[in-house]
Task: inverse folding
């Protein structure tokens, strides 16, 4: 990392200083009748790489823009480093944002784009030069400083947008779907770069995405959002293993979600799916109206035995490391992932198989 | 790099249909612009009397103090008019597009009205308000014992021209401002930029293509305008000199045509300079984040200030029309702040006598506007999207029409088309359609600029998408390009239509009978007599209302259609 | 036999009736005119009433544009009549062979009005109304600025009128051209130009169209204007607070009408001329919106009491013997001189004039012989002309304007010479007058 410049006129703060946390408190936001954010409360720890994950229209970008100051909450407040910034305009928040479209100004060169925020902070010329050089170095674009944005590729534009934002050394870095305009291969590379960068700068970063893989691979913690509400906050593993509700379970990875009813009592309890009865492990708590959730890889195709059920394979996808089978059981289709090892034979469509769910993998979730 | 490559590929190979269309347009321009003007202009290169070819006239031009002075006066007036027009246009355009502002549409429409200043009667109204013994100065003299020379000398011309032509900047700048994606601004705010700095560093540079388009139009129009200086009795400017030479010394005198040639050359130079300045500033939708337009809500005091500024500017620029309105109801208005009395008699007279003028005006101006947007769209498309050989020449030729004084075009038409007889023995030049064509040629540059700017804002990839889905070039233009250009095309139509509706100089030579005459001609006739002043003003008011109503309706249609397409949200 | 006589009679009648019928005008009569709607509308109404079935198609263009139009369209002429004020426009058309001869049948019209022949001696164009030149002013303006009523051209040269007078450029207005020519012929070349330039020193503006002057006076933007009488009369009739006076050096000139060569409706054109010259047509001139002087003396019986009558009032226009030939030869030169010495040098001329006025005012309080001499020198510097009367009509100079073979220089060169001549002398005059002012302090 380049040396930290002391005595900055605007903010005595460099990347070596303590990163700041972000807190969103009881925020409500509506556009007319459209209630976009509903009582959102959230804590992002200092230095954390945090993601807002959810389908489009879930309010994640709105929440990000709220932190940046582009949206005003009807109720609630936003704190950065413990300081209430709700009343501050965007240009006083020191919250750096990388736009989905990158929003590079076409009338300025790359260098000028990056220098812009520093110029706005009235830094001395020499310092601006140095910091722009650093920022461009950081993203590996020093050689393109004199180009115009229209002369750059998508990935380069994205990196300029990042450089422009980190150049001001913001308190928090906001990334609004920064990878969505890149092709798949580049996306993998860039997301790794972003993670690296965040690690090096140690800056609190919030990342908006609808792609769970992106979120899982680079983020420390994720807030899953749907319909304006935070569904669950946790590490990728927590969210995957212990989803708080059906939405989280289905949104993160593939899941079998089965409706049925609990029959029997005590240790004889079973979950009835039409004609099939699945034994319920002892001690499991089942909220009323809950559905049975388990991951496809937690189902095993076995011989007939206790706790097993049978069905017909209706489709098959060979994915290399594993094979995904669709098995019709009663009226529903259950996904089963079978690992593939050299020499394995695949089951055929139409074949009748018996399968078993690992009891510890069974979750009962209400919607 | 990839983008540049994309663009190059987007420029397509020459199709036979395109070539044919371009050739048709070239023929049209050749027939109705270049030939008539050439028949007149070539006089500049002939020796008086003998008709021998010579350049001596240009030598005389450069050696004549009056002409040299006129030249620099024209440059000064045009440049200052651009400055003052920008002072009027910038706040109006910014407030109405970048903020949530009640009545923005109305202001945009009203801001357009000054362009529709009927000839003669408008100047009379201006004199009555701002003249040496106009309302303002009589009151100032009464109260403070001082007079402000609004309408005196070169600065008077600057004042009147800026009021008259600032809508060109307003319209073009507003269109550009509307096209700036909100993320462009938000990125700057995010980096700590706000308020006026934000406008200066990001918003205005992004709107620069529109501003330049408008400013160059204002420059050229002021440079070539002869009516306003003459009505203010400023004669030492280039365009008035050309007009005075041609119409008073005679058709055989070369100096008038030398000046006309200089006018055309300077205008083309100005257009070229603005085009050169805009090169590489193709801020098309490829840059857009799809965030749409950001309109900020204003705080109470900001809002109050904005209304104050808007009303101040509108009050100033619409004063001539207010004067016109007063004049149209006035009995006698002479050396007094307000008319002696009011009457409806002028309107009665006008409605009795002049309905045919109104009908003709609507017909001619709409047809001319229609021709203009068709040609304008086509030429803009050829220039920006094809590799047709000589496509820039179409552009230059059409733009050069801006520099041709109306009277030169009128004389050229008579020379070229009067000898052409129709089957009935009637000369071609006497058909009313010739008035329409002359108007269309005169106003083509306005429509062309608007179409050009509109097409510049459209990403090539949108067209490629259509072609990719199986649409031919022609169908792509019809189904994708033209609908996306609707705003620009309609802006072009409005400029052409409304200025054609009050055009006089070319029509004066071509009107053959009062049953074919447009409104401006009727006005001219009224304004030749003392008793005609009131009815003239009434006719002027009707003209302005008519054009303003058409412009407002068109605006509404655009808003609605864009709203339906989700473009304006 | 009786049948035969009847047939013969019918035949004879038919023979006679034939041409009579042919002369009975029908259809559309197209007239190109510089007259305003206020003038043309009453005539159109009266004419169409007198000849049912005929429509008068009025095309309004200013005189110069009208001449140009007729010239440009000669190959396929569609215009029947040319109808305008300035006789010189008709001379131009006649010279180019664009007019057609005719012998009007109307009676009771004298040869001359004042010193001016009413009809073209060659029979190409005919006067139908007369007008004189004079000074028009706005009463409110005069009262507010405490200015006296002028009577003569020279009155307008008085210091009191500084910056209050307006005129149309003679190169732009045929009528103003005649006014200047009248002053030059009435007072002589040098004295005439002196009068013109002394007046010009008081000019507020030189407009480029005739109607610009009455328009400015009507609205009170300018106090005094040099105009043709009917502008003032019709403004008065419309209620504007304006007055008009004929100075003694004026000329009464006819406004004219002519048939265009190859007129498509010759019969209609002739009928219109006969109508204009008939008592019925002449009476239309008395209408308040027109107010021009009839050329049939009998018609004045029907005029209002204070109507000026050049046939009765010997002071009207009789003093100047207007020489059409002299005027014709130097038309372009006079116009160019006026433009180069006055219109385009107005600033310098006004500055010099103002300095002279100031010096004279100071000298009136504290006389000083040297100062007087300086002021006289200054006045002479303003008055001096770059060319003499003889030169003005010489082929060397006139040729430069017409493109003739004998030209000594190109028009642009001459104009530049004259302009710098005037510019220098006005600057010298100003310096001398300022010197005189110093002496008088």
Result:
């Amino acid at each position: 990392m380049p040396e930290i410049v002391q005595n900055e006129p605007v903010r005595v703060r460099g990347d070596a200083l303590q990163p700041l946390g972000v807190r969103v408190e009881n925020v409500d936001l509506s556009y007319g009748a459209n209630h976009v954010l509903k009582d959102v409360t959230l804590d992002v720890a200092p230095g954390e790489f945090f993601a807002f994950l959810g389908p489009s229209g879930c309010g994640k970008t709105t929440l990000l823009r709220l932190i940046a100051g582009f949206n005003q909450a009807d109720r609630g407040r936003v704190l950065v480093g413990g300081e209430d910034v709700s009343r501050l305009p965007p240009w006083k928040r020191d919250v750096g944002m990388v736009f989905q479209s990158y929003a590079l100004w076409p009338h300025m060169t790359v260098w000028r784009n990056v220098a812009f925020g520093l110029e706005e902070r009235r830094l001395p010329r020499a310092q601006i030069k140095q910091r722009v050089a650093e920022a461009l170095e950081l993203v590996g674009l020093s050689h393109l400083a004199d180009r115009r944005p229209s002369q750059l590729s998508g990935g380069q534009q994205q990196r300029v947008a990042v450089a422009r934002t980190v150049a001001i050394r913001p308190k928090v870095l906001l990334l609004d779907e920064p990878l969505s305009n890149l092709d798949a291969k580049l996306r993998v590379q860039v997301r790794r770069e972003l993670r690296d960068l965040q690690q090096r700068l140690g800056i609190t970063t919030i990342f908006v995405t609808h792609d769970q893989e992106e979120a899982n691979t680079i983020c420390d913690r994720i807030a899953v959002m749907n319909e304006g509400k935070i569904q669950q906050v946790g590490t990728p593993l927590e969210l995957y293993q212990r989803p708080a509700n059906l939405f989280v379970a289905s949104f993160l990875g593939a899941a079998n979600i089965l409706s049925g009813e609990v029959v029997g009592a005590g240790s004889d309890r079973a979950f009835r799916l039409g004609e099939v009865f699945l034994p319920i492990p002892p001690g499991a708590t089942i909220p009323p109206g809950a559905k049975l959730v388990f991951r496809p890889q937690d189902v095993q195709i076995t011989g007939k035995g206790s706790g097993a059920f049978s069905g017909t394979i209706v489709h098959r996808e060979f994915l290399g490391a594993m094979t995904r089978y669709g098995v019709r059981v009663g009226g529903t289709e259950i996904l089963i992932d079978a690992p593939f090892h050299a020499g394995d034979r695949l089951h055929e469509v139409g074949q009748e198989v018996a399968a078993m769910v690992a009891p510890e993998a069974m979750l009962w979730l209400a919607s | 790099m990839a983008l540049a490559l994309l663009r190059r590929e987007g420029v397509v190979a020459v199709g036979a249909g395109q070539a044919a269309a371009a050739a048709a347009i070239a023929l049209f321009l050749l027939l109705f612009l270049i030939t008539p003007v050439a028949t007149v202009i070539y006089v500049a290169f002939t020796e008086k009397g003998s008709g021998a070819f010579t350049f001596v006239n240009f030598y005389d031009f450069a050696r004549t103090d009056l002409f040299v002075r006129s030249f620099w006066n024209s440059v000064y007036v045009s440049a200052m008019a651009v400055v003052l027009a920008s002072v009027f246009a910038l706040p109006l355009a910014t407030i109405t597009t970048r903020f949530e502002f009640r009545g923005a549409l109305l202001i945009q429409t009203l801001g357009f009205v000054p362009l529709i200043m009927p000839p003669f009667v408008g100047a009379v109204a201006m004199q009555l308000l701002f003249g040496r013994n106009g309302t303002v100065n009589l009151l100032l003299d009464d109260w403070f014992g001082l007079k402000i020379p609004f309408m005196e000398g070169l600065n008077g011309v600057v004042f009147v021209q800026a009021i008259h032509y600032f809508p060109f900047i307003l319209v073009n700048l507003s269109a550009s401002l509307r096209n700036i994606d909100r993320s462009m601004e938000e990125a700057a705010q995010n980096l700590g930029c706000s308020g006026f700095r934000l406008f200066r560093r990001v918003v205005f540079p992004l709107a620069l293509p529109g501003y330049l388009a408008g400013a160059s139009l204002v420059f050229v129009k002021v440079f070539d305008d002869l009516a306003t200086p003459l009505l203010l009795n400023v004669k030492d400017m280039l365009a008035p000199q050309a007009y005075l030479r041609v119409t008073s010394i005679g058709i055989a005198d070369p100096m008038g045509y030398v000046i006309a040639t200089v006018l055309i050359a300077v205008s083309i130079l100005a257009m070229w300079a603005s085009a050169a300045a805009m090169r590489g500033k193709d801020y098309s939708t490829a840059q857009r984040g799809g965030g749409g337009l950001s309109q900020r809500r204003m705080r109470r005091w900001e809002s109050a200030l904005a209304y104050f500024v808007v009303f101040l500017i509108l009050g100033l620029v619409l004063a001539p029309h207010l004067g016109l309105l007063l004049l149209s109801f006035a009995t006698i208005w002479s050396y007094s702040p307000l008319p002696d009395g009011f009457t409806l008699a002028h309107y009665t007279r006008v409605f009795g006598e002049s309905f045919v003028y109104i009908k003709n005006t609507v017909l001619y101006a709409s047809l001319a506007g229609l021709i203009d947007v068709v040609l304008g769209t086509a030429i803009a498309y050829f220039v920006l999207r094809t590799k047709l050989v000589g496509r820039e020449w179409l552009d230059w030729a059409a733009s050069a029409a801006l520099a041709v004084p109306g009277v030169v075009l009128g004389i050229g038409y008579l020379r070229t088309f009067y000898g052409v007889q129709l089957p009935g023995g009637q000369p071609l030049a006497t058909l009313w359609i010739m008035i329409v064509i002359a108007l269309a040629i005169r106003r083509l540059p306005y429509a062309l600029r608007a179409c050009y700017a509109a097409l510049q804002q459209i990403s090539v990839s949108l067209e490629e998408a259509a072609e990719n889905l199986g649409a031919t070039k022609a169908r792509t233009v019809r189904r994708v390009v033209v609908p996306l250009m609707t705003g620009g095309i309609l802006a072009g139509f409005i400029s052409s239509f409304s200025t054609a509706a009050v055009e006089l100089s070319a029509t004066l030579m071509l009107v053959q009978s009062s049953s074919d005459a447009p409104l401006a001609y009727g006005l001219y006739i009224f304004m030749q007599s003392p008793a005609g002043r009131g009815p003239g003003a009434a006719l002027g008011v009707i003209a302005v209302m008519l054009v303003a109503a058409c412009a407002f309706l068109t605006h509404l249609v655009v808003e609605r259609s864009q709203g339906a397409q989700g473009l304006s949200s | 036999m009786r049948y035969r006589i009847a047939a013969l009679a019918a035949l004879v009648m038919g023979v006679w009736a034939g041409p009579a019928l042919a002369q009975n005008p029908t259809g559309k009569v197209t007239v190109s005119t510089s007259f305003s709607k206020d003038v043309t509308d009453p005539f159109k109404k009266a004419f169409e009433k007198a000849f049912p079935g005929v429509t008068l198609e009025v095309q309004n263009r200013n005189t110069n544009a009208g001449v140009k139009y007729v010239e440009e369209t000669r190959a396929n002429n569609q215009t029947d009549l040319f109808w305008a004020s300035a006789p010189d426009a008709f001379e131009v058309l006649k010279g180019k062979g664009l007019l057609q001869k005719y012998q009007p049948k109307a009676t009771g019209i004298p040869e001359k009005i004042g010193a001016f022949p009413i009809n073209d001696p060659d029979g190409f164009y005919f006067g139908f109304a007369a007008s004189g030149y004079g000074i028009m002013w706005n009463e409110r303006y005069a009262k507010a600025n405490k200015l006296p009523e002028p009577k003569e051209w020279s009155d307008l040269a008085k210091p009191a009128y500084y910056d209050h007078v307006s005129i149309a450029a003679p190169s732009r207005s045929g009528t103003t051209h005649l006014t200047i020519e009248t002053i030059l012929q009435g007072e002589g070349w040098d004295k005439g130009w002196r009068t013109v330039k002394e007046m010009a020193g008081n000019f507020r503006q030189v407009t480029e169209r005739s109607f610009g002057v009455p328009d400015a006076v009507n609205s009170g933007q300018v106090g005094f204007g040099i105009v043709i009488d009917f502008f003032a009369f019709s403004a008065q009739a419309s209620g504007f607070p304006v007055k008009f006076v004929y100075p003694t050096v004026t000329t009464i000139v006819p406004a004219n009408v002519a048939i265009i060569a190859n007129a498509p409706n010759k019969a209609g054109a002739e009928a219109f001329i006969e109508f204009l010259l008939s008592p019925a047509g002449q009476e239309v001139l008395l209408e308040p919106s027109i107010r021009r002087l009839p050329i049939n003396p009998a018609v004045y019986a029907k005029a209002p009491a204070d109507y000026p009558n050049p046939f009765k009032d010997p002071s009207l226009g009789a003093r100047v013997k207007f020489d059409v030939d002299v005027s014709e030869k130097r038309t372009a030169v006079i116009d160019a001189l006026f433009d180069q010495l006055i219109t385009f040098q107005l600033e310098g001329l006004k500055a010099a004039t103002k300095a002279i006025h100031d010096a004279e005012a100071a000298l009136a309080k504290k006389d000083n012989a040297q100062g007087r001499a300086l002021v006289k020198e200054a006045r002479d510097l303003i008055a001096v002309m770059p060319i003499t009367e003889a030169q003005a009509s010489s082929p060397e100079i006139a040729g430069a304007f017409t493109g003739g073979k004998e030209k000594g220089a190109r028009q642009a060169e001459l104009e530049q010479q004259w302009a710098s001549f005037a510019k220098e002398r006005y600057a010298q005059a100003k310096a001398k007058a300022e010197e005189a002012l110093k002496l008088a302090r």
The CA atoms of residues 301 and 454 of chain B lie 35 Å apart. Chain B has one domain: 11-565. Residues 11-565 of chain B form a domain with the MetI-like fold fold (CATH 1.10.3720.10).
